[in-house]
Design goal:
Number of domains: 3
CATH class of the largest domain: Alpha Beta
Strand order of the largest sheet: 3-2-1-6-5-4
CATH superfamily of the largest domain: PPM-type phosphatase domain
Radius of gyration: 39 Å
Number of strands: 21
Distance between the termini: 78 Å
Shape: elongated
CATH topology of the largest domain: Phosphatase 2c, domain 1
Strand content: 15-25%
Structural class: alpha+beta
Helix content: 25-40%
């Protein structure tokens, strides 16, 4: 059965849109035809078509038996309608979400002329076009079933509260106020401090469709129009006093009418000053506590207008069901929100917060989770600065989209960073990652691609472990898929990895990605790779052959190739633009480990600075080079290397064959040495020491004048 909307935003067909309750079923004015029985509201639309069928059958319209008449003489409200004569139209069942209104069935609903146009219980006349109450238990059950399904559709807090409001207004009540604890308790934690309720949402029949001036005469012509909103005349915050009337009602859990003694004292405390103007007199307001799994988390107030029939005792059961389902849904939504927050934080901390800015290369990255309900995954990327102005580019993918996958990804990423700090070749890094994955478990498998770019030699070394191949976009706009040996995934064990060295021309862009970008249920991985290559080439044509596309815009364009059904996996994307370092900006020397090496190093550095027009740095560079070279010569057994790099800063690198790294320490007044690194730390912009497979490199940087 199709569920019909209950919100006032979409009125029922055939109903005057200016009526304040456009979503409610109406009691239509009975159309009388001479000699014909009155039709029920459900069969009225088909009356015109039935006349033709009756005429063809030799009958008159007035000969039809009233559909609502109880032929057995029993109570018409609880009996089945009589079967119509052959050729008549069978009445349609009422929509599931909006219960049928038995009191509005028309004059023939009870079969007694004296009861025509009157409400059966009260005897009051029924006004055509006005809502009638739910009286049958079946009506209430159908309404509760449809309303709880609507509430259950929500995933987050706002969706559930909105579902409660839209399900009840205007079908069950004319307005609703929802108060929730601030802050909401999560799970089993015990909140401390006073209980504070915050007005989370209000809903009511809109004023432009309200022809009867609201619930009370609060808005006067001389008052601003915003006072017509419920939130303007009720308190936003309410502190529940221990032992007070509101606390007693909330502790009782069961809904109560507003005219009950407990509610009369609790509602002013909840609504604040002026709130009593909102509550109509009589049983036209229900205060329903919202109780979650462990504790009360709020309250809901259902309101009906004075001209509408009051709530009945059975409506308290309806309010209790709505409050219970809403409270349990809110409890689950809060838990889900916390889990989503933990997942977001875990994923965020597992990935680089910011990318480094190494010399000679520019970087950009993107990460997209698989779906809103699967925020964590095993995809990662990284960029690790290496000695000699090199940079390691890493992208990997652990199987799965769970917390376990994210945890394994974090361990493998940390292992890769440690191995990169040892300056191991790419194939050795993958070999050690494979061993680490096997130590984590027998089913811990991942793919990974590890590349090292050298901006001085304009070369890149790549090793692959079962990962999709990278794509290189040249400066002229040509895009090619690099031929890299695929290798076996990490975690298989007993396999060898192979590295290849390729040219990395200046102006080219290398794109590393995970399989979520190119593979889905709608296409295989190689079709996706070809589409990616074509997308890069088409994007490069937009900027011309001499101007590569901006990195950030290029990443966005690549992600735009994803269609509606292409998000089966999370996506990690790393783009590197190779600028390189020109040979004229590099000076490189070998120094023998002898006492004259520091003096020779000072002379060579002075000449290079003069050639580059950086004489203002001569004194600082000579002092620092002399100190670092002196420390290297003291312990080295092989030639010492000295390299100067001119980029946006001046970088000096001194390498030797001793693996022990120097440490900064405070020299005593009686010490003859130990002040070299202290000077470097004071004068240099940055400095550091990195261990290599053949020794170490000590480097420092100075700002260019």
């Amino acid at each position: 059965m199709t569920e019909q909307p209950t919100s006032y935003e979409r009125p029922q067909p055939g109903v005057d849109p200016t009526d304040p309750r456009g979503a409610l079923l109406r009691t239509p004015a009975p159309a009388r035809t001479p000699g014909a029985a009155a039709l029920t509201p459900q069969s009225a639309p088909s009356a015109q078509s039935d006349r033709g069928a009756q005429a063809r059958a030799g009958e008159t319209p007035g000969a039809a038996t009233p559909c609502g008449k109880d032929q057995s003489g029993g109570d018409p409200e609880h009996s089945q309608p009589a079967v119509a004569e052959t050729g008549t139209h069978r009445p349609r069942p009422a929509p599931e979400v909006i219960p049928a209104q038995p009191g509005g069935a028309g004059p023939a609903a009870d079969g007694r002329d004296a009861g025509r146009g009157q409400e059966r219980r009260t005897g009051q006349g029924l006004v055509p076009g006005k809502p009638t109450p739910m009286r049958r238990d079946g009506d209430r059950l159908r309404f509760v079933g449809a309303a709880t399904r609507r509430i259950a559709r929500g995933l987050d807090l706002d969706e559930i509260v909105m579902g409660l409001c839209r399900a009840t207004v205007p079908t069950f009540s004319d307005a609703i106020l929802v108060y929730l604890r601030d802050p909401l308790p999560i799970g089993d934690e015990r909140p401390t401090g006073p209980v504070v309720l915050r007005l989370r949402r209000t809903d009511r029949i809109p004023e432009e469709r309200d022809t009867e001036n609201g619930f009370a005469s609060v808005p006067q012509p001389e008052q601003p129009p915003e006072l017509t909103e419920l939130s303007a005349v009720t308190a936003e915050l309410c502190e529940v006093r221990p032992g007070g009337a509101l606390a007693e009602v909330l502790r009782g859990v069961r809904p109560v009418f507003a005219d009950a003694p407990a509610a009369r004292a609790a509602l002013p405390e909840l609504l604040g000053e002026g709130g009593e103007l909102v509550v109509p007199s009589g049983q036209r307001a229900i205060l329903a506590p919202l109780r979650g799994r462990r504790r009360v988390i709020g309250a809901a107030v259902f309101l009906r207008r004075p001209e509408r029939i009051a709530f009945e005792a059975d409506d308290l059961l309806v309010a209790a069901q709505l409050a219970t389902h809403s409270a349990l849904g809110i409890d689950k939504a809060v838990l889900y929100g916390r889990e989503a927050y933990i997942a977001d934080e875990l994923q965020r901390t597992m990935l680089p917060e910011t990318l480094p800015r190494p010399t000679g290369v520019r970087l950009a990255s993107r990460y997209l989770p698989a779906a809103e309900t699967a925020r964590v995954g095993g995809d990662w990327y990284d960029a690790i600065p290496l000695p000699g102005s090199r940079v390691a580019l890493v992208v990997g993918d652990v199987m799965g989209h769970s917390m376990t996958s994210a945890a394994i990804m974090g361990q493998l990423r940390t292992t890769a960073q440690t191995l990169a700090g040892l300056d191991l070749p790419p194939q050795e890094v993958l070999h050690h990652l494979d061993e680490q994955a096997q130590r984590l478990g027998t089913d811990r498998m991942a793919t990974c691609l590890y590349a090292v770019y050298d901006p001085v030699s304009h070369r890149i070394t790549i090793a692959n472990a079962g990962h999709p191949p990278p794509v290189l976009l040249h400066l002229g706009g040509r895009a090619e898929v690099l031929r890299v040996p695929a290798g076996a995934p990490i975690g298989v064990g007993g396999v060898d990895f192979e590295a290849v060295e390729l040219d990395a021309p200046a102006g080219a862009t290398l794109l590393l990605y995970t399989d979520g970008l190119v593979e889905s249920r709608l296409r295989d991985v190689w079709t996706g790779i070809e589409q990616l290559r074509e997308k890069l080439a088409a994007t490069a044509q937009l900027t011309g052959p001499d101007h590569p596309p901006p990195l950030e815009a290029l990443c966005d364009e690549v992600l735009d190739m994803l269609g509606p059904g292409d998000r089966d996996d999370d996506i990690a994307l790393l783009a590197a633009r190779f600028d390189g370092i020109a040979p004229s900006d590099v000076a490189y020397w070998f120094l023998e480990p002898e006492d004259a090496a520091p003096g020779r190093a000072r002379r060579l550095a002075r000449r290079a600075l003069s050639r580059w027009g950086m004489e203002e740095l001569t004194d600082s560079v000579e002092l620092l080079v002399s100190e670092v070279v002196t420390n290297a010569v003291r312990y080295a057994t092989r030639p010492v290397t000295l390299r100067l790099l001119r980029t946006d800063v001046l970088r000096c690198e001194v390498g030797d064959d001793v693996p022990q790294l120097p440490r900064l320490r405070q020299a005593r007044h009686t010490d003859e040495g130990g002040r070299g690194l202290y000077l470097v730390n004071k004068l240099a912009r940055r400095w550091g020491a990195t261990r290599l497979s053949t020794g170490k490199v000590v480097w420092f940087e100075l700002n260019r004048g």
